[in-house]
TrEMBL record:
Protein name: 2-oxo-hepta-3-ene-1,7-dioate hydratase
Keywords: Lyase
UniProt key word Ligase: no
Organism encoding this protein: Sinorhizobium glycinis
Fumarylacetoacetase-like C-terminal domain location: 75-255
GO terms for MF: 2-oxopent-4-enoate hydratase activity
High-level lineage: Bacteria, Pseudomonadati, Pseudomonadota, Alphaproteobacteria, Hyphomicrobiales
InterPro entries according to UniProt: Fumarylacetoacetase-like_C, Fumarylacetoacetase_C_sf, Hydratase-Decarb/MhpD_sf
Family annotation (Pfam families): FAA_hydrolase
This protein's GO CC annotations: cytoplasm
SUPFAM superfamilies: FAH (SSF56529)
Amino acid sequence: MITEEERRAAADALLKAEIERKPIIQPSETYPNLELEDAYRIQALWAEARVAKGARIVGHKIGLTSRAMQMASKMTEPDYGCILDDALYNDGAQIKADLFIKPRLEVELAFVMGEDLVGPGTRIYDVMRATEFVVPALEIIDYRTEVPRAITDTIADNAAFGALVVGGRIIRPMDIDIRWVGATLSKNGIIEESGVSAAIMGHPAAGIAWLVNKLHAVGGGLKKGQIVLAGSFTRPVDIAKGDVIQADYGPVGSIGVSFV
């Protein structure tokens, strides 16, 4: 464990990295005793600083939802971060590439909560019952730390959240079998990735149930109206200025964005 003063220093460094678009030395290198609890506290302090500057927390993201990514990070469960309102984009947006350090894109589904949801003991059907809408979403991930990264570095760095793009059809959670939402991700007219939503822990709502129970342990939960990114079902694709992205979700619609 590290001290509260060290946690605040790490949060300040990450905030500076975000502003200056320059990655910092990994917190785990600066503070060798850094643990998961410290990392989530650093994330919370960073979020508090962003809120103090005018941002608003509008939801949460879940990462490491695939077994392969967990094994690569030496983890046995996902991680999570928060979504801020100044990082939300709609279908058709022109996004400034220089807002990020080294952005990558992932294909996901976003759940919009229709009611509050708290743990413990939350299960998939609780999530489905509490969800008002599900929409296609793209997550832009961006790391503010150098490599190689420990999982504590990623968590402290708000689980590498960069931005969120939503679009396509707005559906109710029982309208279709959301385990079998397929999508292709194209960059400049070439399909780079494809996947199906069942790759997210067997069911996209499974990660959200996990999140609700984790938040309960620290006195939190999900609120009505919040957006929750359920996790990626494709590998991340590098993006740069000039790229045009198209994510095709078939019957659930599509999302197109460009980076300028």
